[in-house]
Specification:
Blueprint (H helix, E strand, L loop, with lengths): L1 E4 L3 H14 L11 H8 L10 E10 L2 E11 H7 L3 E9 L3 H16 L5 E4 L1 E2 L5 E2 L1 E4 L15 H8 L3 E11 L10 H14 L1 E4 L6 H16 L10 H11 L10 E4 L2 E10 L2 H4 L9 H12 L5 E9 L8 H15 L4 E8 L3 H9 L3 E12 L1
Length: about 375
């Protein structure tokens, strides 16, 4: 077995292709589009690399790729948290401790040589991207932008001296084929709250998309900066995401919470496009995939949404305004044929959000884990 850095396009192709081979028989695994993965890994296209570096490693045995990993140094994380944490991500491996250990050691050596004292992950590339190892909920498919892996990965990690850093919880609500009305107490409570606090709601204005993206920039870091593991997003990173989201974003599922003409919170939910991608296992954007995607969106065949973001600025927290945002998304998603959804991920110790979701009937159904290993 050999471990070596990716060198050239052919190696990158093999790096990208591995999970499609490893997981093709897992009925719950949902393939990412290969073109999206390639763009994500491209140092010249992904604005993450404005403040970060990464090395990609392949594990080979008898000429066959049996594992991969990326080692990641994120200067923005270290400057924000005043630490020396390095990251690893894009981990994939056959069920072989020797392969996994060698990959982890290669990533650790690379990170150590750059002054890091802890290796954290998996994060591909950061907590603003897909992150966490699935450790519970293997019998359900992941929502859009959430990872999935076989159960044996947990054994590979724990045998390689990784320790739990934090669990990330995905919660689901309305788990049924028909619309479940918002509980009456939530309807009454949110209306009273809006009247008492003088707040209003409005959807995303697609006609002024650039201005709306600028508004999100002003809110995002304020709303999440106190969260464990939070990494600020740069303007270029938010612009890059906005370009990707615009073709599939539903304005009704991006509400802004307003007070005296000023936005004090927002949420972002997306139709779960994985419902479509799960039917097409190649990871390639073929005409059949495009047609399925367009018709599914047009004729409301996607019955599921994921709330990616939901936050209120610090000075307005603790007043139940998160319930106002959830109520809006619940009712608007139903108008577009989406009768159940995922809220998450949520930090395991974010009791306020978890309890708020619980009161609306959401329950835990998938758990992801971030691990640390001292260097």
């Amino acid at each position: 077995m050999t471990i070596r850095p990716v060198a050239g396009r052919a190696d990158l192709d093999r790096f990208i292709a591995l999970p499609y081979e490893l997981h093709k028989r897992d009925p719950f695994w949902v393939p990412l589009l290969r073109m999206d993965v390639r763009n994500l890994l491209d140092r010249s296209k992904n604005p993450f690399f404005d403040h970060a570096e990464a090395e990609y490693f392949l594990a080979e045995r008898d000429g066959r790729v049996v594992g991969r990993v990326a080692a990641i140094t994120n200067r923005l994380h270290n400057e924000f948290h005043h630490d020396k944490v390095g990251f690893f991500g894009f981990f994939e491996s056959v069920y072989d401790h020797a392969v996994a250990d060698a990959l982890f050691d290669a990533a650790a050596d690379w990170l150590r040589s750059r002054g890091h004292d802890v290796m954290r992950g998996p994060a591909s590339f950061s907590t603003n991207d897909e992150c966490g190892l699935l450790v519970a909920g293997y019998d359900t498919p992941p929502c859009i932008m959430m990872p999935h892996n076989p159960p044996y990965y947990e054994r590979l990690f724990e045998a390689a001296r990784f320790l739990k850093a934090k669990d990330l919880i995905a919660m689901r609500g309305g788990w049924q084929a028909e619309y479940l009305p918002v509980p009456e107490r939530i309807v009454r409570g949110t209306e009273l709250m809006k009247q008492r606090l003088g707040v209003t709601m409005r959807p995303l204005d697609l006609a002024n998309f650039k201005a709306e993206v600028d508004l999100v920039k002003s809110l995002y870091n304020r709303c999440w900066e106190r969260n464990w593991g939070f990494i600020p997003m740069t303007d270029r990173e938010i612009d890059h995401l906005a370009v990707q989201f615009r073709p599939v974003v539903n304005p009704d599922l991006v509400p802004f919470l307003m007070k005296d003409g000023e936005a004090i919170g927002f949420a972002l939910a997306l139709p779960d496009l994985n419902v479509v991608f799960r039917r097409h296992r190649s990871g390639r954007l073929t005409p059949a995939v495009i047609l399925d995607l367009l018709t599914s969106l047009k004729f409301k065949r996607i019955r599921k949404a994921r709330i990616l973001l939901l936050g209120v600025v610090p000075e307005w927290r603790g007043r139940g305004l998160d319930a106002v945002l959830y109520h809006w998304i619940w009712t608007k998603a139903a108008e577009h044929g989406m009768y159940w959804g995922e809220g998450g991920w949520v930090l395991e110790d974010n009791h306020a959000i978890r309890q708020g979701l619980g009161k609306m009937g959401f329950t835990d159904y998938r758990t992801y884990r971030l691990y640390d290993r001292p260097l």
